[in-house]
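INFO batch 0412 | record 1 of 1 | parsing
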Amino acid sequence: MTNTAPSPFSHKLWLAPLTFGGNLPFRRLCVEQGAEITVGEMAVVFRLLKDKGSEFALLRSHPSEPFFGAQLAERKIDAMAAGAKLAEARGARFIDLNCGCPIDAITRHGLGSSLLRKPSRLGRLVEAMRQAVSVPVTVKIRTGWHQGKENVNEVAKVCEESGAAAITIHGRTREQRYTKSADWDLIGQVAAERGIPVVGNGDILTHYEARERMQRSGVTSVMLARGALIKPWLFREIRENRAWNPTGEERIGLLHRFVELLREHFREDEKGRRRMLQFLPWHLNFFCRYRPLPEAAFGGQSLEHPLMQSRIALAEDASPLERLLADARPETHTRFATDLIEATSREDALARATTLAESLPADDGAAELTIAASQLAG
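INFO prediction complete | emitting tokens
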């Protein structure tokens, strides 16, 4: 009898597996803002099998995450099966195989997107995972290794035939990293060929871009990465099909909530404070790139070139608080993060931010919205 139950991966908004940025507190923040499926940071199976405690931390989830998946990187069949069992035992609702990471430190060991060059091995890895665990197995891939030699159709077919329950496609090759626009037409071609959910990923910064990409490709689910780092409320915007342009005060409130989640996770002792100061400035480097992008003004431009890759100036009449929030200087991020961590309430966070904003010299670099792609690994 054919299984007619709906897939848990269809019609969902996914938070991508973000190296460093996909920490548990940030995933919780995104869930509060509408993320329905979350994926942990990539865990390397070799390190798990060596019992590296820091690697096991990447498998940890929170009860508030409605559908959490652990992402694993491995090239050896037996090791991958063992790693999948470890992830399932620690509560993962599904296991995702990383075949998308483009960075040299991963690919030179035969992991990540290097597996795209060996579809048969990739298929054996998926099959071994399916046999090892009772939860679904998914695969995150790119369109290929080299531009002009995209093999995503073949890779997706192998994944499905080997037992994958869903496939996420980042619409670029490994060679392109983040420098070219994501190919949503190719994503749509694969989605039309496959009988399992295909999740689209790449260059989504607004609800209207998500709507257009989904309509064009036919996918029912999208995965957000850099867009979520810039504006975690993007999930809510897509679900409601309308923009939310938060005031400076509302964005301070969101940052204060993030600090609350960081504090709960890392604790309030000195060690915890140091850990928070490792993460928060990094996140501020993405938060500062937010600009209001109303569809009436930017919808046409988004069809010609992704807004994610556009240069958009901060309004000339921006308030000191808005200028602080858009400040791209690392030293500002450190000072701002320290104030946010020391704040005792949302009101105190706003007061501290206002004081800091009024004391800072102008930041000439705050006029651009472009993203430093090298900061992401998946």
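INFO post-check: The chain is about 45% helix and 10% strand.
INFO record closed
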